[in-house]
Write a structure and sequence with these properties.
This protein is mainly alpha-helical and 163 residues long. The chain has two domains: 127 residues, no CATH class; 31 residues, no CATH class. The protein is built from five helices and no strands.
């Protein structure tokens, strides 16, 4: 897979570092044949207000082919996996250096990309989670996350009100 990725960069001379090789290896965790795209038709967004589709023009997938969209979705999964591994490395280092008990790590994220759902890509669409300012409350319903999410929600609410 690495050869295919590097070979696809026409004429580029790359010096692959260990970190870059690790990132490229995350693609192998997501074989392209396992990546599917949702079945979409113009009827799947029939009745949606124009704003709900945002700036996805041409629709679907900003004009990418289904194969290109699958490759993009695979790259997104690989990037998330790579970022997760780096957070793991950070946490391992904090443990190894005996700093974990006096260090607070805040990892903030957003709702992610549509990845082809409703023919959309990226963000900024008025569907479900995009338009739900209280989405964190859904996570709080899960016992494993409840206390942490409730604390984060309270913190965000306090700071939001202050601004």
């Amino acid at each position: 897979m690495t050869t295919a990725v590097l070979g696809s960069i026409s004429g580029a001379r790359l010096r692959v570092t260990a970190l870059a090789a690790l990132w490229l290896a995350t693609f192998d965790m997501y074989p392209l044949e396992s990546i599917s795209m949702p079945s979409i038709t113009p009827e799947s967004v029939a009745g949606a207000p124009e704003l709900a589709l945002g700036s996805t023009s041409p629709w679907p997938f900003w004009g990418a082919t289904v194969e290109q969209a699958r490759e993009g979705k695979r790259a997104y999964y690989a990037a998330i996996t790579f970022a997760d591994a780096q957070v793991g490395r950070l946490l391992d280092a904090l443990d190894r250096l005996a700093l974990a008990d006096r260090t607070i790590v805040v990892f903030w994220s957003d709702h992610g990309y549509f990845l082809g759902e409703k023919g959309l890509w990226a963000k900024m669409r008025l569907y479900d989670h995009d338009a739900d300012p209280d989405e964190t409350r859904n996570l709080a319903a899960e016992p494993a996350h409840a206390a942490t999410v409730k604390q984060l929600h309270a913190l965000v609410q306090r700071n939001w009100a202050a601004n």
